[in-house]
Amino acid sequence: MINRERLVNNFVEMVKVDSPSGKELEMANWLVGYLKERVIDAVIDNGGEKFGGNCGNIVAYIKGQDSENPICFAAHMDQVMPCLGVNPIVEGNIVKTDGTTTLGADDKGGIAAILEGLEAVLEEKVPHRDIYLLFTVSEEVGLLGAKNFNPENLPCKDVVILDAGGPTGTIAYKAPAQESINVTFHGKKAHAGIAPEKGINAIVVASHAISNMHIGRIDELTTSNIGRIEGGGATNVVTDKVTFTAEIRSHVAEKLQDEIEHMKKCCEEAAAKFNTTCEFEHKNSYPSFELSKDSYVFKLSEEALRKAGVEPVPMIIGGGSDANIIANLGYRCAILSLGMHEVHTVNEYLNIDELYQAAQTVYNMMVL
Predict the structure, then answer these.
(1) What is the largest CA-CA distance in the chain?
(2) What does DSSP assign to residue 48?
(3) Exposure string over 161-186, b if 16+ CB within 10 A, otherwise e
């Protein structure tokens, strides 16, 4: 049913198409052309225009013999930098890069599995349910494609997103909300050698605040991290300004709010201790989501994986994805793994056997 050679060839061809976040037009044109060759109409929405991208999300529809239980398969077109001029290398059961770029298995591996599952269905002319395809843009830089997606373009409410790392089998059904935080500490300049006592070192203030925060694994469902800190200059000048960015994630809304307040309190108390001020800003990057294990799409995912010879592994994850946004638009989302490993690094690779299983799983979910 699944053609391994075609699956790999399509993947290799796709990763050679440059598609950094915000610049996915070439990849979108490749996909629209691929679908058009199979007499499948695809529409590109205007989502990209809303945040300065050069392309929107793709939605396609394939009429089937069952309209009562349609299903949508989704993946994102962009990949993290460095991703220009990808040189994929196939070695046995592995596809990797030459070590200078990311591979793009995240998430062109997901796209490849979806396309091959569909290819097998069309090739065999087997009865299938109504099928929708959704390929989003700029997932890697804040889920921007999903955030600017018009749900009127997708009437199907069950969505399977091929975008989880690790061996095939994972069904991610729960993910946390994330809060993005920006803090600025104000100090006072002075000559560090002649009159340091006349200054207020913003680095010291920030350090004091951070030392009292909960950073890292807070509990089973909550994490936080300081991502970037900057400020200062010459060693003979007392630093008057420091900024840092942070995030907090939690599956529990009350816990997320508690940790935001705790971080803010640490900043304000540090500023007061050193007789200065700070500015604390935060905003929600994405909400949490949870799929019921009793839902149709979850049970269908389990059944399809088992038919592909893979034991399902329900999983609560700590990362965000398009599912966080789409689920909060009223969709039921399951996230499946597809054999991508060490993503977001130049050591990224794709396990072909696991990708094959993912494509077989997609096929199993499509057919009646």
Answers:
(1) 84
(2) G
(3) bbbbbbbbbbbbbbbbbbbbbebbbe
For the chain, where do the domains classified as CATH 3.40.630.10 start and end? 4-175+288-366
For CA atoms 324, 135, 163, 138, give the dihedral sign.
Answer: negative
- In CATH, the number for domain 178-286 is 3.30.70.360
| pTM given for the model | 0.92
Residues with active-site annotation: 78, 139
Q: Which part of the chain is CATH 3.30.70.360?
A: 178-286
CATH architecture of the domain with range 4-175+288-366:
3-Layer(aba) Sandwich (3.40)
What single DSSP character describes residue 38? T
Q: What is the pLDDT of residues 78-133, one digit of tens each?
A: 999 999 999 999 999 999 999 999 999 999 999 999 999 999 999 999 999 999 99
Distance in angstroms (rounded) separating the CA atoms of residues 141 and 5: 32
- For 235-335, where are the alpha helices, taking DSSP H only? 253-273, 296-307, 322-327
Question: E strands along the chain, which residues?
Answer: 42-44, 58-62, 66-76, 89-91, 94-96, 129-136, 158-164, 170-175, 177-186, 216-219, 222-231, 241-250, 277-286, 289-290, 313-316, 332-337, 340-341, 349-351
